[in-house]
Amino acid sequence: MYNAHPHQRHHHSLSGSHGSQRHSHHRHGSSVSVPPPGADPQMWQWFAAVDTDRSGYITANELQTALINANGTRFDLDTVKMLMNIFDTDRNGRIGFQEFTGLWKYIVDWQNVFRHFDRDKSGSIDGRELSEALLSFGYRLSPSLLTKIEHKYASGPVAGYGPPPGITFDRFVRACVTIKTLTDSFKQLDRNNDGWVQMNYEQFMMLILGAP
Ligand SMILES: [Ca+2]
Ligand SMILES: [Ca+2]
Ligand SMILES: [Ca+2]
């Protein structure tokens, strides 16, 4: 979805085999093809394009199929699960239309952030761009931490050598959300705000496993 403008997805979906003309032939058609009252018709079209089995809900698999990085790779399942976890507010394991509205806006906002910090328009975020982005979010990280993050989230070098190929959109979002989650967890324990915490094993494990 990063690569394709929402409109392109919309047209793609209508030209594909899941066009809206099929709604009425589906056994659940009457209940899911009609947008909820007051729904943005454009948003409903995008939702219908991602809900390929017309169940009225978006699953992790459907979401992963719909989300494409600029370099043509699909989003990592970890990122898809993270997004589902944030927006599946009723905790039924699927994304309904109202939840999708929030999810879509979130992705569009992140696309704008990504494009802003992808200074060289390479379609990925390199170490310098990452450092600038995190600094603008208020994270003043050491060079070694930045390198660690860059290596963790960059996709492997294509030729096995040379500079890391950078961080794709989906991994950039996951990196930023993870850094925020871990930092917030730390700050909660660091009550006097001196940069040190005392925690037991249980707390440490909960903190790490609670990160996306
Ligand atoms: Ca579905
Ligand atoms: Ca849900
Ligand atoms: Ca770049």
From TrEMBL:
Transmembrane segments: none annotated. Keywords: Calcium, Cytoplasm, Metal-binding, Repeat. It is found in: Cytoplasm. InterPro entries: EF-hand-dom_pair, EF_Hand_1_Ca_BS, EF_hand_dom, Peflin/Sorcin_CaBP. Residues 1-13, 20-29 have a biased composition (Basic residues). The keyword Transmembrane helix does not apply. Residues 38-73, 105-140 form the EF-hand domain. SMART domains: EFh (SM00054). GO terms for molecular function: calcium ion binding; calcium-dependent protein binding. This is EF-hand domain-containing protein. It comes from Amanita thiersii Skay4041.
